[in-house]
Design goal:
By secondary structure, the protein is an alpha/beta fold. It contains eleven helices and eight strands. α6 links the parallel β5 and β6. The termini are far apart.
């Protein structure tokens, strides 16, 4: 209770907050925690720089009626349990959908610049749209999502690492954020966000790891008046809690571009903050398959 900002509300005890973090850090350091942080162990690793890219409003359908309907439903009194989770995921999914045009424009700009990069997204529709763009432009790329076996992952990673012609790695945030090394790229692009900053940091480190010879630039593509308004401040908040408790020394992310404002925004942000407790990986995969309602697209490697 003392360290989780425990409070009793109409639903019972709520332990989703954080409090007395400096005291908690001292206790952990003195009694139980031996932690080797990456910044201390790998002191010679080049820098990692994060940059917020606010997508062009002209390419974002922020007035999308479906998006607004999900947002309105989430702040209605009485929406909870499975209904709230499914609505939240639908809102998250629709955000990815309305960002596709702007994401593809950003990818086109990077291709024109001759960059080699990793692109992370969460929803199949976003991954497919980027792959379609790359195929139409005759760009060599690899794709790793939940359908790719561990054996195939090694093969396609080797292609990206060793063959200059492979320009882009299209990756699932949750399926490709561990177990792969892609240090041939010095640019990482997040087309979508996720409510757990640990997943994002692990994804960043597919390029920022031993073997990387240069600084790594990370682009976070954000769209105003979408779920990004709640997810981005949440990512910063959770990362700050980890830093204060001594569980991470990752640099802060500037959230000045997109912030949660007003009661409804704060309410939805709090719902996203509970997603790790409410939904496990299998539930998430099943719910997203139901929401997207499309068969698995055959993966193509050019």
């Amino acid at each position: 209770v003392r360290y989780c900002e425990g409070k009793h509300d109409k639903f019972g005890w709520n332990f989703n907050g954080s409090s007395h973090l400096e005291e908690l850090k001292i206790i952990l350091d003195e009694m139980v925690m031996i932690r080797r942080l990456k910044c201390n162990v790998l002191e010679q690793l080049p820098a990692k720089i994060r940059q917020v890219i606010t997508l062009s409003p002209e390419l974002i359908d922020s007035k999308n009626k479906t998006l607004k309907a999900f947002e309105k439903k989430l702040v209605e009194v009485g929406v909870k349990g499975t209904e709230r989770r499914s609505t939240l995921l639908a809102y998250f999914s629709e955000t990815g959908r309305v960002k596709i045009r702007a994401i593809c424009e950003h990818v086109e700009q990077l291709l024109e610049q001759g960059r080699k990069f990793l692109l992370f997204a969460h929803h199949r529709e976003v991954l497919d749209a980027v792959c379609d763009l790359l195929e139409n432009s005759k760009t060599y790329y690899i794709r790793i999502d939940g359908s790719v076996s561990s054996e195939d992952r090694k093969s396609v990673c080797d292609q990206f690492q060793e063959e200059e012609k492979f320009r882009v790695a299209v990756l699932s945030i949750t399926a490709a954020n561990t177990g792969v090394t892609l240090t041939a790229a010095q640019l990482v692009v997040f087309a979508e966000l996720f409510w757990n900053p640990g997943e994002l940091i692990q994804a960043e480190d597919r390029a920022h790891r031993i073997g990387q010879k240069g600084s790594v630039l990370v682009h976070y593509l954000l769209a105003k008046r979408t779920a990004d308004d709640q997810l981005w401040p949440l990512v910063q908040s959770k990362l700050n809690v980890l830093n204060q408790a001594g569980l991470s020394k990752d640099s802060e992310i500037n959230v000045s571009n997109v912030t949660a404002q007003g009661k409804s925004q704060t309410t939805i942000m709090s719902f996203f903050s509970q997603m790790d407790d409410d939904v496990d990986d299998n539930d998430l995969a099943n719910l997203m398959d139901e929401l997207e309602g499309v068969p698995e697209k055959k993966k193509k490697y050019m």
